[in-house]
Structure formats: C-alpha cells, structure tokens
Design brief:
The complex is a heterodimer of chains A (about 525) and B (about 350). Chain A is of the alpha/beta class and about 525 residues long. Chain A has helices at about 30-40, 65-75, 160-175, 195-200, 265-270, 310-335, 350-355, 380-385, 400-410, 410-415, 425-430, 455-460, 480-495, 515-525, and strands at about 20-25, 45-50, 80-85, 90-95, 95-100, 105-110, 110-115, 120, 135, 145-150, 180-185, 205-210, 215-220, 230-235, 240-245, 250-255, 255, 295-300, 340, 360, 370, 390-395, 420-425, 440-445, 465-470, 505-510. With about 350 residues, chain B is of the alpha/beta class. A five-stranded parallel beta sheet of chain B has the order 3-2-1-7-18. Classes of the chains: A alpha/beta (about 525), B alpha/beta (about 350). At the A-B interface, helix 4, helix 6 and helix 14 of A face helix 2, helix 6 and helix 8 of B. Chain B: GO terms for molecular function: oxidoreductase activity.
Chain lengths: ~525, ~350
Amino acid sequence: MILRHSTEVNPTGQSAETAQRVLVVGGGIPAVAAAQALMETGVQVTFARFRDVAEHVYFDMPAVHVGDYLRDLSAELDEVEIVDITRAPVVWRDHGVFRATFEDGTESAYDCLLLAPGISLRPIPLDLPVETELFTSRIKALPGQQVLFLMDYKELTHPALGMSAIRIAAETARNGGKAVVCFRHAPVLHVFGEALYDSARKDGVQFVRYGEESPKVQRLGDGGNPAGFRLAVSDIIDSENEFVWDCDRIVAVTGPDASSISEWARTMADGDLDERGFMLSDNIHSNSGRSFASGVFVVGEATGNLDLIGCMAQARAAAAQAEAWMRRSRLKREDDFLSVSTACVRCLTCYRVCPHSALSLQPQVSRSRIEPSPSFCLECGICASVCPSGAISLRAYPEESIAGLIKELTPSEISGLTFVFGCQRSAGIIAESIDMPENARFLAVPCAGSVSDYIIWGVLAAGARGVLVVGCHHGNCRSDSGTELAAARVERGKGLGVFGGKPPRIGYFTIAPNESARFQRLLHEFLGNDLP
Amino acid sequence: MDKPIVVVGGGIAGLSVAGMLAGNGMRCIIVEREASLGGHVRDWACMATDKCLRCFCCSAEDLVGYARSSDKIDVRTGWELSSVSLSSGGPKQAVLKRIGSAEEKTEEAAALVIATGFEPYNPGEKILLGHGRLDGVFTLAEMDSLLRRDMLSVFTRGRRGLRAAFFQCVGSRDANSGANYCSQYCCKAALRMALKLMHESPDISVTLFYIDIQLAGKYAGALLKAAEDKGVRLQQGVPGEITNSEDLLEVIVESQGLNRKEPFDRVILSIGERPSPKQSVLDQLGLPANEFGFVSSRDPLDNSRTAIPGVYVAGTCSGPKDIETTLEHAGQTAEVIMADLRKGALR
C-alpha cells in the first residue's frame, strides 16, 4: 500500500492545487493504458488497481506480444500513484469534486473518475460436457492433442476472442496436434483477419461451418481417463454430410458477459446500460468513454465487444476527453451561472431529475439544503423546468428570453405564430441553415426537457397558434431523460385544457442535426403548410 | 507551443483530432481539398428508428460546427498540403496550396496529422451485380443519401410489400480485387439500415445475406438482437448475378455451396472501404503503406503514431473503420500528440 498525498480541499470545495486529479479505478489493459495516457498529458493520476480483474478478452497481435506490451506500459507508470485495492473505494460528489474513501480509511478528492471495471466471459453452456474448458487468455497451445474449438454455440462468439482461438488452434496444429474450429461466423477483424484465417488453414486447422442446427458434442466411454468426446455437425459449406470427429478436449469460445459488470462501476456511472447490459459509456454528443454522469468516464470491455486495439484507442481517447472535460469544469466552478435561491421549498425534485448529478443534497439537522455544483452542470435546464417555486436560476434557461420575445409581439402577431422550441444540439443546428416559414418562430433551447409546462402554457395563453417541441432522438439526448420528459409533457398537455373551445395545438417530435429535410417536412406538416 | 498542428483532411477523423486538441488549448489548421467539411459522413443519414441506433452520423454536424466556431482552429477548405519539410524532431514547415491557384502559404508546424480518409469501392466493377444499370440496385451509401434528403420514395417508388435484399462484403474480403480484408463498418451499418427501412415502411420484408456476421464493437449485439426481433431474415450467401425480370430482380445467390435463384424487388449492396488514392505528399514523406495501401502505423497497439516522429494518422486512412471507431482513433491521436508535445517541452 502506497500512502497517498493528502489533497487539501477547503470547505468551499476550491482545491488549493491547480493540477487536475483523476482517479482511475479498475485493472487490466484499458485501465493501465488510460492511467498512462493521463499521466503523459500532465494529469495527476491515482490508480486504484484491482490485482484480480476479470478475465482479459484479448487476442495476440502479429508482431506484438501483448504480455510484454502490458509489462512495458506498467513500467511507465512512474508518475502515477498506484493503490492496490481489493474493494472499490466509496465515491461521492461533494462541492463539485469527487471524494473517495479507500479501504484503509484514507480519503482524497478528484476532479474526475475513469472506470475500467473489466468483464467476465459468458460461462460454458450447460448442455456441453462438464469437462469442456472455457477459452480465456490463459489457454495456451495444446501440442499433440486433438482439440475442438467450439464457437458461436447458443450465442455468437466475440470476434476478437474467436481470432485469438484461431491462433491457438494454429499453434496446436503446428506442434503435432490436431485442431478443429467449429463456427457459424468466421471472425475476420482488422486488415489482418483474413490472413490469420488463411494461415491457420495452411497450418492444418480444419474449419467447420454450421448453420441453424447446433453441433452435437457428447462424451465417449464411461468417463475414464483420458476423456474423449465426439463431435457431430453438419458442415454447410464443404458438404451436406455430417462431420464426425473424436477429440481429446473441447474448448468453448464465448464472449463478454454483460451481467458480470461489477456493481461498484454501475453505481459510479449511474447505471447507464444499453439493451444488452453493456455500460453505455457514451452517447453521440459526449463521445468516447463519457457517461451521462458528469465527470465519469468508462472504458474497456464493459462497454461492448471491443478488442485490444479498440480498447487501447478508447482508453487514450477517453483520457484526452477527460482532460478537456476537467479544463471546462474547472472554469465553470468559478462561475455563478447556477444557483438555488431561498425560495427553495426542499421538495428535492431537481435533485432527483438532474441527469448530470449537478445538484447535491446537503443533509442538515433542521432542514436539508440543495447545493448546486456548477462543475458538473451541463446547463440542460431540466432542474429549472421542474422547480415548483422558481428557486433555480440558470443563465441558459430560456424562460425570460421567451417572455421578453412575447412582450415584443402584438397580440395579432402572436395569434398567427406557432412557437417551435428546438434543442440547440439538433433542431437548433438545422434552424441555423434553413429559412423558417413565416408562421413559425424558432427558439433554440438548451434541451427539449427544459421547456416547462409553464413555458408551453404561457405561450399558448398569450394567444399563440401552437407550440411545437423538438428534441433529440431517444437515446441521443445528452441529458439522458430530457427528450422523454418533453414527450411526456406534450402528451399530457394534449389532454389538458381547451383554448377558445378548441384543443391546444401542441406537438412534439425528435430529430438529429443531420435530418434537415425530414425536419422541414415534419415542421410544415405540423404547421399545416404546403411543403416549399 | 505556439506552432499549430496541421491536420490534413476535414472528415470526421481530422475534425475530431482538431476539436480535441483545440479543447485542450492547442492551435490547429485543418486542410481540406473539398469546399466543405465533414467528408463522407456529411452524406450519410441518421439511422434512428423510435430511438437512436448509435450510428454516430450526426456527430459530423457537431464537429463541423465546433471547427467553424473555435478560435483555435483555422479551417482551410479548398486547400491542400503541397509539401512538408522534416527535421530530425518532426515536421518543420508545411506548405499549403490553394487548389486551382498558385497561392501558397508556409506554416511552421508542431505536428502533422494525416486524416485523408477512404475511397468507397465502386460496385460498377462487378458488372454482374448490375449497379448503375438496374434501377432496383442501390449501395448502402446511396440509401443513406436518399434518407438524408428525405427521399425514400425514390427507393420504394410508392410500392408496398417490397422484398429487399442486402448483400454484404461487396468489394471487401475480396482477394480477387486486392482487398482481402473486412471493411469493419458494413455489418452494423446494414443491420441499422434494415431496421431503419422497416421503421420507415413497415410493410417491407428484409433479407440480409452475409458471409460472416462480425459482431465487433459497441452496440453490435444489440443491433443483431433488434434485427432478429424485427424479423430480418439472416442468411449466408453472396450474390452471383442480378438480372431484371419484368418488375423484379432475379438474384442468383451462392449460398452454402449451392446456387439458387431468388426474386427481390430491391437490392442494397454494402460496399467496402478502399484506401484513398495515393497523395504525392505521402510519397514525399516516405510514409509506408501496408499491403492493401492503407498508411502504416508504428504498431497495432500504438496505431496513431507513424514511423516518422511528429507525423500521426487518424481514421480510415490507416485502415477501414466505422464512425465510432474512427472517432476513438482520432481521440487517441489527439492524446498521443499532447503527450509527445509535453515530453518535447519537458526535454
């Protein structure tokens, strides 16, 4: 255990130091690569290192020995403070920084977190013989043996792992063994993928491709030593006949198992997951490795079917992203664009909805307070849009500018206009490059989720013909829930209230910044105009 | 560190490197031959159905906007890199030339980034597939372009119940035409396009013919699952010959060792990524290329640096990639440039 330098944080959270501080938590190659990359760019890095990370999923590169490469990288971590851990530190947000308490009770503060939690492989399917071995980076060539490498069984194999298995199969075949690789899809990643496949074939590896019908594998004999197995499979390419082969060992090649991602990582990244359970480390707007949770970056295989080349690039790219993020967040810390006034009724709605964890709860004996952390804030305005007492003041929040605009217009001007509120990250970009129809007034907002009920109904009450809210596509909202929030408001609004005997004209759709033509079609449809 | 970093190529790779360096306080010059920034991705379409399918196409708009507005980035569209002089420590001077004129400008460069992108495979080379000759045969890029312009009707021509077939690896994994490699982007792009088409016209039925599905990269598993759930028919097979018969396309599919004929209304070809035609400045630099013509990097795990100190690569000029991988590669390039400059400054 290396003792950490204590990082002085004064009560207002302004660190006395100027260096940027990152806590890397995890193990394996992506964690080491990210720590090294951050160190190289002059960031102060603490690497909380798990000695015993989940199985690496990698394949050896031609001309590079991965083990040596990893050792080299580790040797270069001289400016990194390494803390060996068995348990993830407890991390929380406090006054715009992350505080971490380690298992030895020491505590430090950081500007940002970079997580590389690693992942385990999917277990061997239960209907294979119990002696079946799982293909991991620890499986070496098996000289003199008859080995079956079984891929895509039940669920598709991760291509990088499949290529790794093909290399081991080739080495086995070159050393007096016999290897059969049985797959549905040949893995051919990178420009050298095909060459690997061809050279393995030359080395004597036999490839058998199966289709819908799964191969059958059974144990031979009565379980005596050595075990023997029989493979029976229809090869859909080379012949229609059944291929039957007796072998000594079976190695099942699977892929990353999203359900094995550690709980600590899910918690620190606020649980953003894709449909398959991999960590949604980025959305389109926030790029490499950044999660919705402000200041948290996730890299490595927990983010999907990455191979080693991809992991290295992702880890280094995330390091560059993290550095840029810290630069911006440091500037914001000094700014006063976000504040909570004494009008706050402590309903905690803002605390619950903020997608970026920029509002924290300061527990107090009498009444707890909401404390804004500008360094985490992305200025989406969702908090202000849900605040029942108007206590949140955010510079980018559009309410006042909308009120000002309405004041400038005469009632007759307003009555002919539909107000279009579009997210500045999608519709706002389109609006800059097209001519708006005369019966529409476009206003860019920081997020569709910032368009409150108050704004929608205020505009309608002023006599506007209609309100249209345009958000980013679901899953591409930089503020995670902003687009859903906007959709729900408009949907609810359609069923509410009647203006002059007519239901309110309010609408909502989603768009991406590269859908200018579609935006114009949908806009004119809503306005009831003919398309120009 | 006042000298700028010269980035050759204004596609998403070049824009991303410049954007990230500028975000970390460094000055960049983007040199782009074309009149506009964004490269191929500027013609591609959003693949969102009822949710974002993470195609990353829209990132180009963000990146172009950032490059245009950042005071750290000098955008030179309609310019090219004419020559570079090297010193032992890296590039020294980059001579930029305005295309179609004699105007030249010499910049002291701190580093040079090659981000010249790829060239799409021309499916017209495969005469039997009928692209350019048969109305119903499209490329993935053409479909993108139609969707981008909100003109899917050019594809459907008002027909309902269309049977569409996707064919993968057209010009990829193709030893006969010197491209025996996987283009990396097309399995996921075709799955997204299939989902997009079924979303836009729900009565369409889609068959996707593959050689091998490559489930690599983030979100690949989710896309395959979504396609299976939506009823995309996934079949092994490659196209032999496509002919017009009355109102439909007769396709000879080589599948599982047999040739069989199947009728379709539309065919979409997933065309491969080829290296950009060689640029004279790369020759002048003496940057080595791999056997397929992509710019070689130092080694596979350090693939943003080249053999020449101070000269870096980003994106598809160093090998085929999808958008997300390109952005990550570009991010890595920015990181190693920052690291190298810092080391140099410390020395």
